[in-house]
Specification:
Length: 292
């Protein structure tokens, strides 16, 4: 496997020598900065996204809009807790009772959620970053529980499933205020340009990258109603929830129409690509720049 030495050189960050090993199935990636005009984001927001791989956008949603969604997602979390109670070791995949719940594909089960992923502000951001033809790629509620505080390891979203193109858009939406103490995202700025990196599976936490040479990260606290908007290639983690309350987030991933994925753990040769167009939860949200 080839190696690629790089440095994070930002005014406010220590220079960190990194040993960037590419994902074994990645065939090379080149970041392209976005060209305006932009319809929703300001030029300086997109410039920052290109430079750092993420931006925090406050006040996207009204309290009422958010409450509607939170009430709905809370019901799915209660259901997930009941399911975890029935599982051995109260675990299912990387979800664990009292630690963290990942509850995916809710658009297939809720009209409210299906409407929310098509919110005009989210689609405005998606159009600016991904262009005129966009599909929903994935979405999940992530509830970080206080009973068993734990980190969710540093990873790129493409580390869970390599896609082509590799750069899709992740919108991490806090349903209550997200702080360092309750586990807001923390992101390694500037590393998105190197494409998908090698990840290793850390039991029972999930996939992790750069564990041998952890990079500098910046915390991205964000109030309920805002979002952390990042490239699928931005390495990020969330810290342990050391508060007494659940930290609630809803994560929506958008990808360009025609995105394919290489499914499975990255061992052996790369499998055939699979179209990411499941009509139940990977449907079109933008065509020709218009909401569908
Ligand atoms: O919300 C969290 O704690 C982690 C979620 C995350 O990093 C992701 O969905 O990629």
């Amino acid at each position: 496997m080839s190696t690629n030495a790089a440095h994070v050189a930002k005014e406010n960050f220590v220079m960190v020598p990194l040993n960037l090993r590419p994902h074994p199935w990645s065939t090379g990636f080149e970041w392209s900065d976005h060209q305006g005009p932009f319809g929703f984001l300001k030029d300086d927001q997109v410039q920052r996204f290109d430079e750092e791989g993420f931006i925090v956008v406050e006040d996207l949603f009204t309290r009422e809009e958010l409450k509607h969604v939170v009430d709905e997602l809370d019901v799915f979390d209660v259901e997930m807790d009941r399911r975890l109670d029935r599982e051995s070791a109260r675990r299912a995949g990387i979800s664990e009772k009292g630690a963290i719940s990942f509850i995916p594909n809710l658009v297939a089960r809720s009209e409210i959620v299906r409407e929310f992923v098509r919110h005009s502000k989210l689609l405005g951001i998606a159009a600016d970053i991904l262009g005129p033809d966009v599909n929903l790629y994935w979405e999940q509620a992530v509830y970080k529980k206080p009973e068993k505080p734990r980190r969710f390891p540093l990873h790129q979203d493409t580390g869970y499933q390599l896609t082509d193109p590799e750069d899709f858009l992740s919108c991490w939406i806090p349903l209550n205020d997200a702080t360092v103490d309750n586990g807001c995202p923390q992101i390694a700025p500037g590393l998105h340009v190197y494409g998908t990196l090698a990840h290793t599976y850390v039991e029972p936490l999930g996939w992790e990258c750069l564990s041998e040479s952890p990079p500098e990260v910046v915390a991205a606290p964000v109030r309920a109603g805002g979002a952390v908007v990042f490239s699928s290639l931005a390495p990020h983690f969330t810290g342990p929830n050391t508060t007494d309350d659940i930290r609630k987030a809803y994560v929506i991933l958008y990808a360009r129409k025609g995105t394919v994925a290489y499914v499975g753990a990255p061992v052996g040769s790369r499998p055939e690509p699979v179209q990411q167009d499941n009509p139940d939860y990977q449907f079109a949200v933008l065509r020709g720049g218009r909401a569908v």
